[in-house]
Amino acid sequence: MNLALLALASLAAAQTAAVPCATGIHMLVARGSTELPGLGRIGVVAGNVSLLIPGSTVAAVNYPATFEQYTISEATGAAMFAKMVGDYAAACPGAKIALLGYSQGGQAVMDALCGNSEAGFTASADLVAGYRSSVVAAVTFGDPSHTLNAPWNVGTSNNTGIFPRQNFTSCEPYTDMIRGWCDTGDVYCDRGNNTKTHGSYFANYTLDAAEFIVERYNASLATTLPETPAPSSTSASIPPPTGTSTPPTTSSAPPASTSSTAASSGARGPGVNPTGVSLLVASASVILTSCLLPMVLGMS
Prior knowledge:
The protein is α/β, with parallel strands linked by helices. The chain has a single domain, classed as 3-Layer(aba) Sandwich (Rossmann fold), CATH 3.40.50.1820. Strand 1, helix 2 and strand 2 form a beta-alpha-beta unit. The radius of gyration is 19 Å and the shape is globular. Helices cover 35% and strands 9% of the residues. The protein has a six-stranded parallel sheet, with helices on both faces. It comes from Lasiosphaeria hispida. This is Cutinase-domain-containing protein. One of its GO terms (molecular function) is carboxylic ester hydrolase activity. Pfam families: Cutinase.
């Protein structure tokens, strides 16, 4: 019970923190179609990340999330993502931001980053170049704009979604930091006929998504670490202390859908101690699924 309360308090504090700039990662979260205003079900991923990265904050993207006038609703979500990224990056120099979206919210994530190239939607621009360095991770579940053979695809899908992206060239600067889960049978991202698949990502991939965000956050810290000055030519060469190693390089290849990227690669930056991460995330997932979602998101 104490651990459950800790998880609940962690997410609640992240959402209502008085300090505007996170010392960890700042997560922008868009719920799926028809979910009540707030974080929605994908908030469970943000909750896990908040437990693993101290000082993290979470904000819900306020948009309609309706089936009616879907194109307007989704475009509003994408525009809100872009605005929130810009506002936060301007207020918090050096900010680390992650974008999370489920279903329609996932399409809004991708359109905010890459611009809209889906048929039937009004074309929109990709994220302002000046803010690209602030976004370190983007995660989607069941994105209707899922496109076959995109380099960030994970999951079991072999089809495109109902609103496939016509051009993802503008997404290329973000390839390493995007993961989009879509499974075979999903009626929206895979054009399938299994209605249960669209809601199965939280049980199957919450751990993978949370660990991916943590990995990308750590990698972003590693790239900003100050370099040690080279010894002068007149001084004696001093060997590095035992155990010193070069920060790991994160692979751009998407992880296998059946295993976590962070767990399989073993590469983590200096921001989070990897010891016991899988156990902590697994515990947090159970807690957040059984406790956080009913209490925080108002769902049973």
